[in-house]
Design goal:
Helix content is about 65%, strand content about 5%. The chain is mostly helical and about 160 residues long. It has a domain of about 60 residues. A two-stranded antiparallel ribbon has the order 1-2.
């Protein structure tokens, strides 16, 4: 009995290969030979159904928009909890609420959910700049002096502009 060159312990099937290796090589060759034709068919199908898919997508988003937003908010809350170690029950209401009012300055448009790093209590939404200033003040050995310096810098920038 003639043995295969690919696997000397298996019997020869064709072209010096055993049956599994032969089948694998033939299917790969067939795949490569038919690839341009299959790609052309896929493109033709996509082009023929493009408008139907777009219509379906628009209808689906209209019907499931709120559900999708809720899923995204839940995912964002879980990511925040994983990153910070805060309690999910405390974090979830902040992501479900549409109002993102900065707890430091009271203006709308807070982008960072702020929390106390010692107690892991969530404080609320804060602007990036407000959050940085709060962090500087809380970690400063002389917070009053730091606040006076920051106020002077802000006044200088306003006078310069």
């Amino acid at each position: 009995m003639k043995m295969a060159m690919c696997h000397p312990d298996r019997p020869h099937y064709a072209f010096g290969l055993c049956r599994p290796c032969y089948d694998r090589s033939r299917s790969r060759a067939r795949y490569l030979a038919n690839r341009p034709e299959r790609l052309a068919q896929a493109k033709a199908y996509y082009d023929a159904h493009r408008q139907a898919k777009r219509t379906y997508d628009i209808a689906y988003r209209a019907a499931h928009g709120q559900e999708r937003v809720a899923q995204q908010n839940a995912y964002a809350a879980r990511r925040y909890v994983a990153r910070t170690g805060c309690n999910l029950d405390e974090v979830r209401p902040f992501f479900e609420d549409d109002d993102k009012i900065c707890w430091l300055c009271g203006r709308d448009g807070g982008t960072d959910l702020d929390h106390d790093h010692l107690t892991l209590r969530v404080r609320g939404w804060a602007h990036g700049g407000c959050n940085r200033i709060e962090g500087l003040v809380m970690s400063s050995p002389d917070p009053v002096r730091l606040l006076v310096t920051l106020a002077a810098v802000a006044a200088f920038r306003e006078a310069d502009a």
